Amino acid sequence: MREDWVKCRFEDLLNYEQPTNYIVNSTEYDDSYETPVLTAGKSFIKGYTNEKDGVFNNLPTIIFDDFTTASQFVNFKFKVKSSAMKILVPTSDLINTKFVYYAMQVNKVRSDTHKRYWISIYSKKEIFIPSVNEQSAIVAKIEEFFSDLDKGEEDLKKAQEQLKVYRQAVLKKAFDGEWEKLSLSELGTWGSGGTPSRANPDYFKGSIPWVKTGELGSKYITTAEEKITEQAIKNSSAKLFPSNSVAIAMYGATIGKTSIFKAPLSTNQACAVVQPKDSVNVEFLYYLLTSMKRKFISLGKGGAQPNISQTLIKQQVVPLPDLDSQKEIVQEIESRLSVCDSIEASIRESLDKSKALRQSILRKAFEGTLLSAEEISACKAAPDYEPASVLLERIKTEKKKK
What we know:
Layout: E1 6-9, H1 10-13, E2 14-17, E3 35-38, E4 45-49, E5 61-65, E6 71-74, E7 79-80, E8 85-90, H2 97-105, E9 126-129, H3 132-174, E10 180-183, E11 188-192, E12 208-211, E13 220-221, E14 226-228, H4 230-234, E15 240-241, E16 246-249, E17 258-261, E18 265-267, E19 271-276, H5 282-291, H6 293-299, H7 310-315, E20 317-320, H8 323-367, H9 373-381, H10 388-401
Parallel strand pairs: 3-7, 12-18, 13-17
Antiparallel strand pairs: 1-9, 2-8, 3-4, 5-6, 5-8, 10-20, 11-19, 12-14, 15-18, 16-17, 16-19
Helix pairs in contact: 3-8
């Protein structure tokens, strides 16, 4: 750390205010309303309210999740979702709140215990600060770099969305041929599982993987989070399906998710499972059902937690070419999707690198090495320059007066 930076604590720079007076009364949010309702976590804006009382307007400020230590910089009026946070306000008009916010992003504490952190731990953390001029220059440079990274990440995420569209187009095109049309019920033997009684915990201490809908979605599945016993299957509607069966989720947000069983597996009742006939290639069936996910979703009924019945799934009419053609179609699909997989892996790697680069920029900023020698000299040559030690004393004096 450079000699002209001085040590202080977060509590020297930030006071806290309890959020009680600013908690929203109703969660009937609407995007047409004016005031955002915030949390300090990743979701940040939970919705918008039309409530006029208890709107926080002492800006700019930092909201701090008192349990996870996540934080957000805020420069607009808001209300909050819960009391599990602190609203942090500068102790003095001399504070560069954005500089302090960025300092918080590189000063993490372990938050794996359920307790409040600001008063007893986080506010006591020591940091080093430079002069006001250098703080402003550091913030400007951070945001210049971050702006470039934001644009790059936006382009990468657009590419991810385009790949999703392309995947769907590949699957749609694959099944556009003029072939014999059959109902899904004619392609194999259908069934669904069940849930052994939770009242008998011994049922869930076995070795047979018991699949739930949330575990579907990858091409192959060989195991499950929970495992049941043979006795559990005998005493419930749960069934053991052989390998090379194909399962489809029929309930909730997972509707249409599909996987091939590469081992004998049991399922709960929210999974429809088909054992394909000898005339049906299992991977062809998997891709065919995957291509129908949006249709299954549109057919789902039940509001917030829609479901589609196995009967309705089985009624759907689909094309079925001969077995050799099925295998060729699978090869063509996988050839194209493997290119997508490679591109997606590259995109994820680039996004990870961008995230790491942000942390690298912040570390350099608060090690005092982000600015060049020329930029530091320009800060010190400014007519209103004062050393960081003088600045900190002025901040502490203002804090005492407040």
